[in-house]
Amino acid sequence: MKKLPAVKIGDLTIDPPIIQGGMGVRVSRAGLAAAVANEGGIGVIAGVGLGKFENRPGSEFESINNDALREEIRRARTLSKGVIAVNIMVVLSNYEPLIKTAVEEGIDIIISGAGLPLELPKLVENTNIKLIPIVSSARALKIICSKWKRNFKRLPDAVIVEGAMAGGHIGYDYDDLVKDKAPLLDDLIVDVVSLANTFTPAIPVFAAGGVFYGSDIDHFLKLGAAGVQMGTRFVCTDECDVHDNFKQAYINAGKDDIVIIKSPVGLPGRVIKNKFIENVQNGTTSPTACNFRCLKTCNPKEAPYCIAKSLTSAAEGDLDNGFVFAGSNAYRCNEIIPVKELMRKLQEEYAATE
Ligand SMILES: Cc1cc2nc3c(=O)[nH]c(=O)nc-3n(C[C@H](O)[C@H](O)[C@H](O)COP(=O)(O)O)c2cc1C
User: Fold this and answer.
1) Which of 78, 79, 76, 130 is nearest to 108 (CA)?
2) Burial letters for 166-177: b for 16+ Cβ neighbours within 10 Å, e otherwise?
3) Which residues, 6+ apart, have CB-to-CB distance to 139 below 8 Å?
4) Which residues pair with 230 in a beta bridge?
5) pLDDT digit string (tens) for 56-74?
6) CA of 127 to the centre of ligand 1 (A)
7) Which ligand 1 atom minimizes the distance to the CA of 111?
8) How far is the CA of 1 from the centre of ligand 1 (A)?
9) Spatial contact of 114 and 267, defined as CB atoms under 8 Å apart
């Protein structure tokens, strides 16, 4: 049987070569990450907003989220001996404290996108932690490599290339996305792989955004990727830590329900349409008071809605006051299954390719 190949990231062996995408807020925590790590992939805890900060004074925002991240990493370690990573977005106002917490807890890998993580190597000095940036172009990888080499004498241990079909925030122009003019992931992978192969050793490239079936994995491996990162398909698993209403929104979604909105993060985001999203699109939501300033880029006086409140509500199952991030293939989800079975299906689908 044709078997998914393993990939090495430094001294770590990832087999199968699948990274479960970090999903905030509170979607991928210790439960999902450990389940994926137990199957040989990389399990990723999304570091954003893990603590229940929304009901607390703003002065506690940083410590509550640090404590919660620490707890999730420790919980994942009790559930799995596999490879555990954290996803921490550059755009977060508490980026450095979260990275520091992950370093103190001896995390295996830090994955960082939504901005260029140009200073990240400095924060992990004298550790064996692997660093994986998420980029949307070969140019972004080039900038990261030249800065890291010059300032820190190191390169990324792998890179994730995220294309326009991904869920959550997407690194392209809003107008390009809605007009289907964003670059194709196929082209991006070819470009990034050819850049990644100029380094010794070559930097392993992972394709993300719209990878759903084992046949998609086959496709990107044939284009030169070493593996894939998948988010959407992991939401509809038993172990995914989010509220069941969130998973059911995926199961119930049709293709046309999956739309692009503008986000206070400063990037467009892909979501499943509901009443809240209709209000955002009609311009009938308005700025709310903010006492925690979670994002470097948000101006709460002008933001038409609070992304933290929306995503924390959704994570807790309240879809009247929030919305669900989802990849463009979310409408293909039609069952909630254990991670073990999902990994088996992906292997089977892969084996069925030529
Ligand atoms: C619900 C949801 C939340 C996400 N949150 C984050 C996040 O916090 N940080 C991040 O870098 N990417 C985030 N993403 C992107 C995923 O990690 C992944 O790269 C992307 O969804 C891949 O595309 P796919 O969903 O089509 O597999 C999120 C995606 C989803 C669906």
Assistant:
1) 130
2) bbbbbbbeeeeb
3) none
4) 20
5) 999 999 999 999 999 999 9
6) 27
7) 11
8) 31
9) yes
